[in-house]
Automatic annotation (TrEMBL):
The keyword tRNA-binding does not apply. Transmembrane segments: none annotated. Residues 222-319 form the HTH araC/xylS-type domain. This is AraC family transcriptional regulator. Keywords: DNA-binding, Transcription, Transcription regulation. GO terms for molecular function: DNA-binding transcription factor activity; sequence-specific DNA binding. InterPro entries: AraC-bd, Homeodomain-like_sf, HTH_AraC, HTH_AraC-typ_CS, RmlC-like_jellyroll, RmlC_Cupin_sf, Tscrpt_reg_AraC-type_HTH. It comes from Candidatus Mediterraneibacter stercorigallinarum. The keyword Lipid metabolism does not apply. It comes from the Bacteria.
Amino acid sequence: MDKELLEYLENVTEQEQEILKSDRPVLSYFTKDGSSAVVDSDVVMKPMTMIDIMKQPRFVSLPEHTHNYIELVYMCSGSTTHMINGTTEITITEDDLLFLPQGTSHSVSSAGFRDIAIRFVILPEFLQYPLSMLREDTVLRRFIQNAAEKKPSECDFLQFHIHDMPEAKNLLENMIRLLLHRRRNSRQVLQATMGVLLLALSERTYMITVGSPSSYEQQVVLEALNYIETNYKTATLAKFCESCHQPDYYISRLMKKYSPYTFSQYLQKRRLLQAAHLLTETKEPVENIITDVGYENSSHFHKLFRKTYSMTPKQYRRKYSQTDWPMFDSPHART
C-alpha cells in the first residue's frame, strides 16, 4: 500500500481512543441497540450512501456479530484472525480480501498498531452495476449475484489472496481515497471501480479460498485451476487426478458444476493467454512460444489462436506489442 496512505490509516482514531477509555461494549458503537449483535448500516454508513468504509478498531477484539450489509475486508498491513459462524478460523494477512455476505456471523481477534484492516460497507443495490460487468459463471459471480439480490449465499465467505495483483491493490487504494474524500459523482466512480476490481478478481478464481458447507468440492475445483495456472505447459487431467487421488469423471463433474470451463477448456484458455502475453512482452520467436506454452503441434496452435483472437500470432504481435523489438518469424532468427 502507498506509504503516505498507510501512515494516515495508522493514526489512532477518536473512536479507537474512546473505545479504549470507555467501559461500553465494543459492538455498541456499531449497532442501533446497545445489546444487539447486528452491526447496522444506518449506524456505520454516512446518510444517502450505498458504500462506505470504516477502519477496524484495533487493540480490542470484536465479539461475535452479524451485519445487515455485505462486508469486504481489505488487510492493508499486518494480520487479523476471524472466526466464521463459530466453526471456521481464518487468518487474513496483508493484501488479503475477505468477502462476507449479509448475515454471516464472525468475530475478530484483537489487532495491533500495524494491523490495519479497512472494511467496505456495501448495500446490495450498489452491486447491481458491478454485477453487470461479470459475464462468466464463476464462484465470485454467484456470490455477488446472491448478495445483490439478497438471496442466501452458497458460501459463508470468500477469501482472496492478491499479493501479486498490483492492479487490484491499486483499485482498492483508489476506492479508499475516494471514500475518505468524497467528491461529486463519487458513487458512479466507485461502482465502476468496484466492477473493474471484480473483473480482475474473476480472472484469478484459483486464488480464492471458499468457505461453505460444500467447500470441499469447490476447493477441489480451485485446486485444479491453480494446478493449471502453475503447470500449464505440462498439465493434464490425468496427472491432476492422480495427485488428488480422484477419478477423472469426478473431477470433470465438479469442473462442470463450479466452473464455466471444463478442465481442457481452461487449460487451453491459460496457454493461449500466456502465448498472447509472450507475443507482446517478449521478442521470442513464435515457434518458441508455441513450445513454451505446451503445444507440440504448431498448426493446431495457430488454428486455436486464430479462432480465439481472430488474427494470426504475427498479426496479434504487430497490433498489440508495446516494444520496438523486431518481429521474429522463425526460431532461426534468434541471436
